[in-house]
Input
Amino acid sequence: MECSYCQKLKSYGYGDFIAETEYWVIFLAPNQSNLGTCVIALKRHYGKLSGLKPEEWSDFSKIVDRLEYALKKAFDVTMFNWGCLLNSFYLEDQPNPHLHWHFIPRYTHKVHFEGIVFEDPYFGYMRPRPVKNVSTKLRKKIIAKIKENLK
Ligand SMILES: [Zn+2]
Output
C-alpha cells in the first residue's frame, strides 16, 4: 500500500498547499488551534532525519527562515515550535514513516483574524489542545495571508 503522505503529495490534497521548494512542500495543517500551523513534508519518500541529504537540509534551512519571517509579519507570532515526531506511523504493524515537520507558531497574546480569536493558553509549554477546525473559506484566507508575506 502506498504511503499516505506520498498520495497526498501527488495530489497536493493534504490540508492546503502553500508553497514548495526543490525538496519540500509546505501545507497549512488541518488543526489551526495555533493560528498558522503548517506541515512541511519531504517530497521523496524517506522516513528519518538521519541520512537526509545535505542539499535537503540546506533547502529546509531556507524554509525555516522564510516561514518564520512570513508568519511573524502576518500574525505577530512570538516564537516558533518545530517538531519532527512521526509517532503515528509507529502505531502501524509495519511502520513506513514519511518525513515531515510540524511548524507551530506560539503566541503570548490573542490574535484576531477575520473575526475569530486565536489563543495560545499554554504558551511556554507543549500540551495537547482540542483540534480547532476552521472553515475552508478561513483556511484560504490564512494561506493567502502567509503567501502574501512569504518571500
Ligand atoms: Zn511517502
Q: What stands out?
A: The two ends are 37 Å apart (CA to CA). The chain is about 30% helix and 20% strand. The CA atoms of residues 41 and 74 lie 22 Å apart.
